[in-house]
Amino acid sequence: MNEEVLLVDDDEIFRERLARALRARGYDVTTAAGYDDAIASATRRRPDFAIVDMRMPGPSGMEVVEALSALAPDAKIVVLTGYGSIASAVEALHKGACHYLSKPVDADEIVATLHRLEHADEAAPAVTSEATPSLARAEWEHISRVLGDCGGNVSEASRRLGITRRTLQLKLKKYPPRT
Hints:
Elements: E1 4-8, H1 12-24, E2 28-32, H2 35-44, E3 49-53, H3 61-71, E4 76-81, H4 86-95, E5 99-102, H5 107-119, H6 135-149, H7 154-161, H8 165-173
């Protein structure tokens, strides 16, 4: 196999576990913690695939996707996010991504995606069925986005969402819906 994979994620534990799992499945994996590392790595060695987390401190995953698309136009880029929406999926595809996956995601799902991309007609970018979230997932994503916009301030987020602080805290305790 020996396809080159560039894995860009600011979460060190997730990044290293996924890299280890991909290596065990025959991929040559280079990891990067953010934009600068990703661009430096892709400059040294053009990847066949890039797996990019959307939300990172500093330049976002969208900026990484855009730069990688220009730097390595043949690379197939997969965007990973825990804050997915249809709008962000479309934006990722416009910036150069080939595929979009919502977290939580496991190595088998990523490998299956890489395999499909390797053997697929590149004229038709793919978005997984998870790009159309369930109502529960859409609510969780919206709450997470508003909370992030408020810098983690639960009181401000509850005011913007029009719900009580207690209700917001209860919703935040729940694990995000898978779909």
